[in-house]
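In this supplementary section we document a worked example of the pipeline. Step one takes a protein sequence of length 189 as its only input; no multiple sequence alignment statistics are reported here. Step two produces a three-dimensional model, which step three serialises into structure tokens for compact storage. The input and output of this example are shown verbatim.
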Amino acid sequence: MQIWQRPTACLLLLPLSVACTATLTMGQAAYCSRTAADNTKLGPAKVAYKNYVNSKYGYSVEYPTFLVPQGEPDAHDGQKFISESSPMRMSVWGTYSNWMSGEDMTIQQELDWTLQNLQSDDRTSPRLTYKSQGRGWFVISGTSGPGVFYQRTVSSHGVFATVLIEYPRSAKVEFDSIVTHVARSLKGP
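The serialised model returned by step three reads:
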């Protein structure tokens, strides 16, 4: 099993019984590996998180420290988080709920629009595999080419805040707990 992290985080966060390897050749990622016996004893590696707060829309979300913020665009609506040492990518953004027509949209209307536009979001043959909705939020997940996407949107005080996480299908086990943590941490204004 491979847990994708920066080598320094790996050395600081994992017990001594875990072997850490830093592979820095071009095209390869740094990773920590455990034996099957280690996994049953230790559980998943601990991941450190930082909090991102968007000052324009007032939403916040936690992101794993192995992802690096790429800076806000001129619109100041969100941010992308990437890392050379991890195949996971994360984007967050906010919009006012009246962004489309000038009239406030419901969370159901935002979900409907999102589902209608899955194909146009730089995804290769997206296939929805999961959808859940509650009062003031929705989650969608699916596959796109060799990857998985997971999106959570919350509605609060006239703002939609969204987090989108993408990673390879082969890394699903490694990233499940991180995705869950990040998605639950998304808070509207």
